[in-house]
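Friendly challenge for the regulars: who can give me the structure tokens for this chain first? No prize, just bragging rights.
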Amino acid sequence: MKNTEVLDFVLKAISDRHGEDTEAYDMRGISILSDFFVVTSAGSNRQLHAIANSIVDEAHENNYTDYRIEGTRDSNWLLLDLGDVVVNIFTREAREFYNLEKLWADGKKLEIKED
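First reply, four minutes later:
Bragging rights claimed.
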């Protein structure tokens, strides 16, 4: 599966669960870790996990099983590593605290079309 197809189903899953302030960065040629980085916020810990579960469901629907999840049930930040696409899901407070977007400032911020 192409990395852009993975990015597409990730963004769909986030949108379906009402992720907030979603940003995606094209890091091809800049980072050796991943081609795309995505960050989104959730209004609660429960929504954070619903977004992560939605991404996993979309991955399975697309026959994509190459992923890992970092974080626990009580985490305010979950990281989903889908190979060429890395997704960070935060509660609003955790996102403000960690401010990961500054790490990706060299990447191209992608325009995300809302459905």
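The beta strands are 20-26, 36-42, 68-70, 77-81, 85-91, 108-110. The mean pLDDT is 94. Your move, everyone else.
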